[in-house]
Amino acid sequence: MQGQARLAAGRTDQGATPLSRSHTLDFLRGLAIAGVMAIHVSQSFPSNIHAVDFTFVCGWVGVNVFYFVSAMTMCLMWTQRTSETNPTRKFYIRRFLRIAPLFWLAIPLYLVINGTGPSTNAPDGIGPLQVILTATFLHGFWPDSVNSVVPGDWSIAAEMTFYLVFPFVITAFGSRRHLYLALAIVLHLVNVCLFKPWAFALFSAYFGPGHEAFVWNALHMSFLNQLPIFLVGCALFFALRDGFAKSDAAIFLGFIALSFVADRATGSHEFNYLVINLVLGALVFWCIRFAISWRPLEALGRSSYSMYLSHFAVIFGLRQVWPLADGLISLLLAYVVTAALSYLVARATWQLIERRTQDLAHRMTSSATKAARAEPVTAARVGA
Description:
- With 384 residues, the protein is mostly helical.
- Helices cover 74% and strands 0% of the residues.
- Helix 2 runs parallel beside helix 14 (304-321), helix 7 (153-173) packs across helix 10 and helix 8 runs parallel beside helix 11 (246-266).
């Protein structure tokens, strides 16, 4: 109980930021989905202008922004519900019903669209193993099930695994953000120095010669490589709530230095990825600190999960009927049309599916009808 009280009682240090609002979080989700759509649209509708295509490809960082926002949102929701009973069970119910229904619908959809034959992400094709691992959110742990059944599903695997461990981590660490950073450093070094070299040798031997790049890419997207991002996001949440200190900056600098040394010693090529993520974390931190918001991006952010799952299908459909030759105009128009259609799909799935599953989650986690009426309407929508 004392730990729960410490979580609930935010400090009032100068520089602390109130985190009860969700406008900036929605803005950041909107920014993230805009970036994710950019890279995938540019892959199907290239402008053939290097600077433009490179700018669109940089949209891959949107997934990592999602990770930071997810970690902060989970911390926000957890600290706002410190008084409820069985918080871990209710947390799992909310997260499962938020993610699983749409994702399960995406599995047969993309099996029909993409088929089950060999592909870049599944050299031997898709079989029952890949489908079962995907349906149970375990696909992130086996290379040829990553992105093979549902495009972009590596991030869903990372999110769901983070949800699994989050209640235990925040219960153990509370608001002591230095512990989140310390664990992030340890896990990053374990991944770079031990796990990635071992797993690369294991899976390269399993899949055979010629598949080294495929295995390396799958390990880059693995949960262990992504978990430090979530942990840094948790630390940034409490830094925003309680105020950023010089010791935080010192730990981040130490993190960078240790990662640089480990990267040079092992050749893991994860140092640049870490630095990019820390820069993104700073961007997220300051956007929240200054309450940055813009309604169009907030609207996209509130529908970002469905848009993430559906925009691959939208791009596939557009590619079949697109009348324009590749070029700048084609790319820009394809991006606008993809964003608009994906948003419309998201609004439809909200009305038909997500609203109902969120209502179900609300009923299952409310201790009484009166308590259910008292809960803010936005609480069910804050996680993406």
